[in-house]
């Protein structure tokens, strides 16, 4: 039991009363490990919350932050700039698709999403298409917690009960275990159904009323679901056909998660706007960003009076020098250690094979992976839906493993710096934990894929 007073901090997305009965507190981190207060280690197979992509406790980032604090801790970003902010914006655009070169910094993924929605609106107004006010999102989608992002939420519990914009239609979610179970990478089925649903929405609402589509290239908080083959290219094609903007929410997929710097490159699709955060500076200082096609910024600038800000929007800590300095140091690590692409190379393959070796565990109904992302889905059988995942999660934690439960799916997103040995450790701790909860596998592992 902790000797810290835990009464005052209301934890986000937490059953606080359960937490108070069983506090789970980390006090230190290094590499791929978090440490509990009693000093015991926990293998962090979630990279914090999909963000500590370069591993914990990187001295290079700490030194850069310290140096920046002692050089220029803060300067206002409204009407002024700083060297690290400009330098980091330029470094990011070295990894974005060719036409995406404009960076609007925020403090989080949620702010990036709401900023992107506003930019999309502004752009439609700038080209006299102000009637385009609706959005298309997707069931199971997660787009943060601000009002715009909450309105785009395809996860009902995150949406219901809040005052949201009602101008949103939803494409079907991508998880289809009945047809795609145990796929490696992009599964075969789902693109045609998405296209039909897309066309139905356009037919029902009229293309003239639709501003943008916002989707995660890989569904993250909805259970780690890669896009079916051809899916993202088809979305791009339909957006072009109907003159609708395409926003990729790359808050999770940005900075190497899929095996390319951004999923846009990985899937060879150029969206109009991208949102990102999480891995932007290795999860060290709050920061997010919206990445925008040149022509969109240009159209907005052309339509704005040249005596006023082109965009009446921004945050006090936007592009804060300390966050940008952390980003530059993280970018050095990403580039020097080849982390932005390791998920599509030998490490990604090792991860895929390791994950699929779990197929013999009891009640496993699907295993899926992409880059350095993974998920194992369980059939809860006689248990109420969504209660098995938390049980496995707790047992994993007790056995020194942090993964994430999304309902009865166990979701993984390890630091990109993870070693083969640490992947093996994850597999053995996961196997042990599931076996303790559900019993031994009844038959030997089967080849899958
Ligand atoms: C796809 C996506 N968009 C937006 C967000 C919100 O980011 P933040 O928690 O930094 O506000 C998240 C967070 O997990 C996310 O996964």
UniProtKB/TrEMBL annotation:
Keywords: Aminotransferase, Pyridoxal phosphate, Transferase. Belongs to the class-III pyridoxal-phosphate-dependent aminotransferase family. Transmembrane segments: none annotated. It comes from Parahalioglobus pacificus. PROSITE patterns: AA_TRANSFER_CLASS_3 (PS00600). Pfam families: Aminotran_3. PANTHER family: AMINOTRANSFERASE, AMINOTRANSFERASE CLASS-III. Its cofactor is pyridoxal 5'-phosphate. This is Aspartate aminotransferase family protein. GO terms for molecular function: pyridoxal phosphate binding; transaminase activity.
């Amino acid at each position: 039991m902790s000797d810290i007073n835990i009464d005052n901090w209301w934890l986000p997305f937490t059953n606080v009363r359960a937490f108070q009965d069983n506090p789970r507190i980390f006090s230190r981190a290094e590499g791929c490990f978090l440490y509990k207060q009693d000093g015991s280690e926990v293998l962090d197979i979630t990279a914090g919350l999909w963000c500590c992509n370069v591993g914990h406790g990187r001295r290079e980032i700490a030194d850069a932050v310290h140096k920046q604090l002692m050089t220029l801790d803060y300067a206002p970003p409204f009407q002024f700039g700083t060297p690290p902010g400009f330098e980091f914006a330029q470094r990011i655009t070295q990894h974005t698709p060719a036409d995406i070169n404009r960076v609007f910094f925020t403090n989080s993924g949620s702010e990036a999403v709401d900023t992107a929605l506003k930019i999309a609106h502004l752009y439609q107004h700038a080209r006299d298409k102000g009637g385009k006010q609706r959005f298309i999102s997707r069931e199971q989608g997660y787009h943060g917690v601000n009002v715009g992002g909450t309105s785009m939420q395809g996860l009902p519990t995150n949406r219901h009960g809040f005052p949201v914009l009602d101008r949103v239609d939803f494409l079907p979610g991508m998880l289809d275990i009945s047809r795609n179970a145990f796929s490696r990478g992009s599964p075969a089925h789902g693109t045609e159904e998405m296209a039909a649903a897309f066309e139905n929405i356009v037919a029902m609402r009229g293309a003239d009323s639709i501003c943008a589509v916002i989707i995660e290239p890989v569904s993250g908080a909805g259970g780690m679901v890669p896009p079916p083959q051809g899916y993202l290219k088809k979305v791009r094609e339909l957006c072009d056909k109907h003159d609708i903007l395409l926003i990729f929410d790359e808050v999770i997929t940005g900075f190497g998660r899929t095996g390319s710097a951004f999923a846009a490159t990985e899937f060879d699709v150029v969206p109009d706007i991208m949102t990102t955060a999480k891995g932007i500076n290795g999860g060290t200082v709050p920061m997010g960003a919206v990445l925008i096609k040149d022509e969109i910024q240009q159209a907005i600038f052309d339509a704005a009076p040249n005596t006023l800000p082109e965009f009446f929007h921004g945050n006090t800590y936007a592009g804060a020098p300390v966050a940008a300095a952390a980003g530059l140091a993280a970018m050095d690590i990403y580039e020097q250690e080849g982390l932005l692409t390791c998920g599509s190379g030998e490490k990604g393959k090792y991860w895929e094979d390791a994950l699929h070796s779990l197929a013999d565990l009891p009640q496993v109904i699907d295993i899926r992976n992409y880059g350095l992302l993974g998920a194992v889905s369980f059939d809860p059988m006689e248990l109420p839906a969504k209660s098995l995942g938390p049980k496995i999660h707790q047992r994993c934690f007790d056995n020194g493993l942090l993964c994430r439960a999304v309902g009865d799916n166990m979701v993984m997103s390890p630091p990109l710096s993870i070693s083969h040995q640490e992947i093996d450790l994850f597999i053995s701790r996961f196997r042990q934990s599931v076996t303790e909860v559900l019993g031994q596998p009844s038959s030997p592992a089967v080849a899958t894929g």
